[in-house]
Amino acid sequence: MSPEEREAELAKTPIPKRAEYERDVTARGRVGIRCGIGQAHEKLLSRIEESTRTGAYLAGDVYSLADAAVIPYIARLQLLGLDKMWADRLGVCSW
Predict the structure, then answer these.
(1) Is 41 within 8 Å of 77 (Cβ atoms)?
(2) Distance between CA atoms of residues 86 and 3, nearest Å
(3) CB 77 within 8 Å of CB 85
(4) Which one-letter DSSP state was computed for residue 83?
């Protein structure tokens, strides 16, 4: 697809963020994706680490919807072999 054809297709996308993402992938490849994903997961891991300083779970001493909501993300990272991301975060490891 030529750059003009690609841009014409992206212009039809109803979600501007999606078009921006597609442009970024085209321009920078997977490097750009890894950067953005890594930043988002680092932020999540930092929040988990911070939360575990005040209790065993994300919202204190009891399992809550916060834990239930985050577990799928952590499980996916683990399945992808990215669990090294939190190897040095004792709070995340214990959670």
Answers:
(1) yes
(2) 40
(3) yes
(4) G
54-80, pLDDT tens digit by residue? 999 999 999 999 999 999 999 988 998
How many angstroms separate the Cα of 27 from the Cα of each of 54, 55, 71, 76? 43, 44, 33, 27
Nearest to 37 by CA among 92, 82, 89, 93: 82
41-59: per-residue pLDDT in tens?
Answer: 889 999 999 999 999 999 9
Ordered alpha helix ranges (H), the chain: 3-11, 16-28, 30-51, 65-79, 90-94
Residue 19: both structure tokens together = 């078009």
- For tokens 């399992």, the residue is 63
Conformation bin of residue 87: beta by default, left when phi > 0, alpha when psi is -120 to 50: alpha
